[in-house]
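Hi P.,

Sorry for the delay on this. The queue was packed all week, but I finally got your sequence through. Input first:
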Amino acid sequence: MKLLHTLLALGLAISGAAHAAGAHGHEDKPLHGGIVAEAKDLDYEFVARADRLQLYVRDHGKPVNPAGATAKVTLLAGGGSREVPLQPMADRLEAAGSFQVAAGTKAVAVVALAGKPPVSVRFVLK
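Then the structure:
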């Protein structure tokens, strides 16, 4: 009987280690056609179009409410830079205007969600 309990305990210990090593449902695929980067356990999806910049924030696949957040994106291309403030919208942070968003452009977003310290997130446009 002791051998059975020992084998059972060993089997449970091994299955727990296998579960801990597996995926935890952390989703990093773009949902809005942008580029995804991770910072401070959150996923940031940056969507850059010639007339609009959008930043979506997810926590383990669930959208984070941008109310009360502040954010800015610095676009770096061709030796120049442009800083663009983003405003909270329903499910994202956004700016409208005219933007140079060619492939290879680098973007650095600094985001401060309500009540949290700022986080810097880097993207390279494709």
